């Protein structure tokens, strides 16, 4: 089969012919119908050889959708041909976190050598994908896999980040979304559907600001050195009740802290360069502002999000690419010229 693989540290990913895998005991083989391209892959591929933690070649893609093509020994209750999406942050299934559906925070994954597809295990940007357990599949019925696959990360990550702060998003409050790309454009829609907060979106170009408004942002502000002042002009002294930073470089983290209000949540989702930090302390940050950096979301949350998609309230912007065009999708992601999510359709 064909797969998009990261082969050489520092080089572009390559389309390569590799053996089609067979499902082992307990595993499921999916024929991939769609696979999303996430900015975290760009972060991983920008790591120097000494910091790169996975074995190469690595088939990319941690957002996957497919139809069940075969099941391994012992797998029950899953019909061939079922259309599914993949819950990506695989855990052991047995620890306290996994028992809560929080496999994204599995206490034993590292020790057991369990990695998400595309981030250690072979990923979804291929004709076929091995999923380690039927537990990691969510049926999507008649939903379009191409428009639905971004929900497994570009949807699930903001859904988790927003859900934990819903109590703070009262009528009249402001939510700020920094970075209106793959994750950010879903975050804006989720904020609009799940809360009555008003939404201010930030990005670096007029095109992106228009895009943010088209998916539901009430206000859009250029993300420059004056961004915090311009956001404060909109929110007034109260500031924002929730700030979601989908960029995570020091300038955006500083903007996030500068627009946060008393008793707010500042949620840093973007990886940035992996070095930025928020300063918290008396007289430095707003009273009772809480700063967190969450990772992905829970299994239950992905099921909820697919249920929300069935309501038809989400409009996921997708740019389609073939497997052969995979390297081009990553070039466009790095250049910041995508509108929404790049999805590869093998
Ligand atoms: P993306 O490239 O689709 O979107 C990023 C957006 O940010 C683009 O619209 C870009 O124009 C905008 N942007 C860039 N610099 C900016 C700035 N200084 N101010 C405002 N906007 C700016 O990326 P994505 O796939 O949506 O991922 C977003 C971030 O979230 C990445 O850092 C990614 O690694 C990270 N991520 C984290 C998790 C997690 O679990 N914490 C999960 C998925 C992705
Ligand atoms: Zn991702
Ligand atoms: Zn676990």
TrEMBL record:
Cofactor(s), names only, from the UniProt record: Zn(2+)
PROSITE patterns (alphabetical): ADH_ZINC (PS00059)
Keyword Membrane attributed: no
Catalysed reactions, as listed in the record: a primary alcohol + NAD(+) = an aldehyde + NADH + H(+); a secondary alcohol + NAD(+) = a ketone + NADH + H(+)
InterPro entries per record: ADH-like_C (IPR013149), ADH-like_N (IPR013154), ADH_Zn_CS (IPR002328), ER (IPR020843), GroES-like_sf (IPR011032), NAD(P)-bd_dom_sf (IPR036291)
Ranges for domain Enoyl reductase (ER): 10-344
A molecular-function term among this protein's GO annotations: alcohol dehydrogenase (NAD+) activity
Annotated EC: 1.1.1.1
Entry keywords, A to Z: Metal-binding, Oxidoreductase, Zinc
Transmembrane segments: none
Family affiliation: Belongs to the zinc-containing alcohol dehydrogenase family.
Protein name from the UniProt record: alcohol dehydrogenase
Organism: Nocardia veterana
